[in-house]
Design a protein that fits this description.
With 89 residues, this protein is mainly α. The chain has a domain of 47 residues. Helix content is 40%, strand content 0%. Helix 1 packs antiparallel against helix 2. The radius of gyration is 17 Å and the shape is globular.
Protein backbone atom coordinates (compact mmCIF):
# COMPACT_ATOMS: atom_id res chain seq x y z
CA UNK A 1 0.00 0.00 0.00
CA UNK A 2 1.48 3.30 -1.08
CA UNK A 3 0.21 6.20 0.99
CA UNK A 4 1.62 9.68 0.92
CA UNK A 5 1.75 11.33 4.29
CA UNK A 6 2.14 14.92 5.28
CA UNK A 7 5.67 15.91 6.27
CA UNK A 8 6.41 15.42 9.95
CA UNK A 9 7.34 18.36 12.12
CA UNK A 10 10.89 19.39 11.26
CA UNK A 11 10.73 17.84 7.80
CA UNK A 12 10.39 19.92 4.67
CA UNK A 13 8.27 18.92 1.72
CA UNK A 14 10.42 18.41 -1.35
CA UNK A 15 9.42 19.66 -4.76
CA UNK A 16 8.67 22.96 -6.39
CA UNK A 17 5.99 25.45 -5.49
CA UNK A 18 4.44 28.11 -7.68
CA UNK A 19 6.46 30.59 -5.63
CA UNK A 20 9.68 28.81 -6.61
CA UNK A 21 8.75 29.02 -10.28
CA UNK A 22 7.82 32.69 -9.97
CA UNK A 23 11.14 33.35 -8.21
CA UNK A 24 12.97 31.62 -11.08
CA UNK A 25 11.28 33.92 -13.60
CA UNK A 26 12.21 36.94 -11.49
CA UNK A 27 15.84 35.75 -11.25
CA UNK A 28 16.00 35.40 -15.03
CA UNK A 29 14.57 38.92 -15.41
CA UNK A 30 17.11 40.41 -12.97
CA UNK A 31 20.02 38.64 -14.63
CA UNK A 32 18.85 39.74 -18.05
CA UNK A 33 18.43 43.36 -16.95
CA UNK A 34 21.94 43.35 -15.48
CA UNK A 35 23.47 41.91 -18.64
CA UNK A 36 24.52 38.66 -17.02
CA UNK A 37 23.28 36.55 -19.94
CA UNK A 38 25.39 36.40 -23.08
CA UNK A 39 23.78 37.13 -26.41
CA UNK A 40 24.17 33.58 -27.64
CA UNK A 41 22.40 32.32 -24.49
CA UNK A 42 19.38 34.57 -24.76
CA UNK A 43 17.24 32.25 -26.88
CA UNK A 44 17.66 29.27 -24.55
CA UNK A 45 17.13 31.31 -21.40
CA UNK A 46 14.16 33.13 -22.92
CA UNK A 47 12.58 29.85 -24.00
CA UNK A 48 12.84 28.40 -20.49
CA UNK A 49 11.48 31.64 -19.03
CA UNK A 50 8.48 31.61 -21.36
CA UNK A 51 7.76 27.96 -20.48
CA UNK A 52 7.81 28.84 -16.78
CA UNK A 53 5.48 31.80 -17.34
CA UNK A 54 3.13 29.65 -19.47
CA UNK A 55 3.01 27.10 -16.64
CA UNK A 56 2.12 29.82 -14.11
CA UNK A 57 -0.46 31.31 -16.47
CA UNK A 58 -2.06 27.89 -16.96
CA UNK A 59 -2.21 27.31 -13.21
CA UNK A 60 -3.86 30.69 -12.70
CA UNK A 61 -6.44 29.89 -15.39
CA UNK A 62 -7.20 26.64 -13.52
CA UNK A 63 -8.04 28.73 -10.46
CA UNK A 64 -4.79 28.59 -8.49
CA UNK A 65 -4.23 31.65 -6.32
CA UNK A 66 -0.87 32.79 -7.67
CA UNK A 67 0.65 36.04 -8.82
CA UNK A 68 2.00 36.36 -12.32
CA UNK A 69 5.06 38.43 -13.18
CA UNK A 70 4.00 41.76 -14.74
CA UNK A 71 5.43 40.65 -18.09
CA UNK A 72 3.00 37.71 -18.19
CA UNK A 73 0.01 39.96 -18.79
CA UNK A 74 -1.13 40.48 -22.37
CA UNK A 75 1.40 38.05 -23.83
CA UNK A 76 0.70 37.22 -27.49
CA UNK A 77 -0.91 33.86 -26.69
CA UNK A 78 -2.59 34.92 -23.44
CA UNK A 79 -6.13 36.21 -23.12
CA UNK A 80 -6.34 39.98 -22.87
CA UNK A 81 -6.14 40.95 -19.22
CA UNK A 82 -5.12 44.20 -17.64
CA UNK A 83 -1.94 44.12 -15.60
CA UNK A 84 -2.40 45.06 -11.96
CA UNK A 85 -1.86 48.75 -11.29
CA UNK A 86 1.51 49.59 -9.82
CA UNK A 87 1.51 51.36 -6.47
CA UNK A 88 1.94 55.11 -6.75
CA UNK A 89 5.32 56.29 -5.55
Amino acid sequence: MSEESAPQQGEEESGLSYGDILASVQIIDVCSNRGAIKGDELVQVGTVRERLVAFLRSAKERGEDIDLPPSAYNAPDAPAEAAPAEAAE
